[in-house]
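One such given next:

>
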Amino acid sequence: MTDRLCKAVFFWVTISALLTSCSGSGLTGTVKSKAEIAAIEADAKDWPTYGGQPSGTKYAALDQINRDNVRELQLAWTHHTGDLAFDGVKADFTVSEMTPIYANERLYICTPYNRVEALDPATGKTLWSYDPKKPLTGNMYKQNYCRGVSYWQAADRTKRAAECGKRIFFATQNAVLLSLDADSGKPCAAFGDGGRVNMAALDYKGMGQVANTSPPAIYKNIVIVGGAVRDNHERDSLDGIVRGFDAVSGRQIWAWNPIPADISEVTGAANTWAPISVDIRNGRVFLPTGSASYDTYGVNRKENIPDANAVVVLDALTGKRIWSYQTIRHDLWDYDVPAMPTLATIEKDGKAVEVVIQGTKTGNIFVLDRKTGKSLFPIKEMPAPKSDILGEITSPTQPMPVLPKPVTPQMIKADDGWGALGFDAAECRGKLAKFRNDGVFTPPSVKGSILHPSFLGGVNWGGIAYDPNSGLAIVNSSNLVSSVTLMPRSQYDEKLHKRPGVSVYEMKGAPYVMLREVLMSSLGAPCNPPPWGRLTAIDMKTGEHRWQVPFGRVEFSTKFRSLASWGAPNQGGPIVTKGGLIFIGASLDSRFHAYDMQSGKELWSYEVPAPATATPMTFQHSDGRQYVVVSAGGHGGFQTRLSDAIVAFALPKKK
């Protein structure tokens, strides 16, 4: 019992800290012809964008590393950025969420301090570095981070050979769009003001500040940028305007606003903070939009806002809206669409259909026809409970896919309260019983309401990877129960209510202060049963789960980690390869993993310098070797071990 208690205490203390921050041989199930797969693979040899390809499939048609030899994978090189902040450093915490891209025979990265670097893909050595001098403190979310950069090149080969004929675009954390020469790292002087466009100076029609958390999308000569705003602070937050800029001059070509003009003065947000996908062949941009402000209190936005919490499709050249599909109506739970839409071709009823696969914080997976927005699987209109907040009007129903099934539980009862030692289970049952609990869409209340899945998801920004050979979509997810309370402002006492584990949101001008927390026992244990993280494979031909396994562990020292069967909350996403492999970091135990795509069995793992809370990538360099690269710097907001490392793996060199 003593050993069990020690494991519980170590694990749960760490979890509590985390949650207060905010195809190869043998693959089966081919769904397309050899010619169709060959066409896909011809475009998926490199990793020129954040999602592998503009479509966001996170797939590489590489099989030098495969299920038969992945156990031989070894460290090829480690690159240290030098950008690292923790307690005692005069900078906000550093967060490792960056995915490198491979283009122009180089790796391109950004650091948490928003420096951009070009690396030698075979050695990890720096070829050039550019520092935009971003402030290191006072950042939105009080963290230093970046997720990646984007590559563009002129269509004309003669122009491509000239200075700035190949460019790196980067949207910094403080909303500056940079254009750098891909060969030298020098700013492209003719772009905007000396190589930069200050997006923070543009009109976003509301209150607050704009930031960037994801790399721009590229379509022909247009650079497409979304933005992040602070949740649950302003009533009329900045509108979630998405903009398209000329890649050469920096001139704004179009701007699209998800907030209807007639209510823009009373609400805002519905912004696209997650990565954007591009259908290159059809010239369409796919946006994952978030909630309108205030997020969890909606009396100021009773009108329909159909492009909030939606997959929205725009014409890439003009920014004109083509269609949208709303995954949550009148969001009161902060259930942003959090991940890059995955554009794939699947088989349905014997026909090849171009679709968008969208993961959500609720754990629902929507599969939509890419041309029309119509769901390929049945959608049930689930009756939703009414709010007891004065003036609040909830949507009477919410769309719930019949297939695929959710990747995480959506209902918890008080009797489900979990604990390892008995008394903590009783404690959790009592805690759960205190809150209003009418299922997945229980509205926030003064009493306090259960929010399950939590505001962390379900699926988060790591998103989905899709393998065109097997037709499997791979998704990692978290599973935690939380609560949300609308505390009357007149009753709010900072000394009483602002305590460890509780996040307080001001909601300026509202009669309430919003309190949110992940529900734990006094030992720090999540009150819902494990596993608290999962990895799921979904057969897109049928919509059924092929397999699901616990995923994620938490480390307490270099020698001790939580139980694998518990799983753990995770950040970052998977990638898949023609070699039949899933590569994923994401977990909090400083291990980088390879899984068998067909079975979900772990085939290989490697201890990296810090948790790899990022999405990896892979490419085959001109030296003939396939490399797999991941950022392994940890997450300051989660209080994990920290590093400034980017690590690359390859098979041993042939003698």
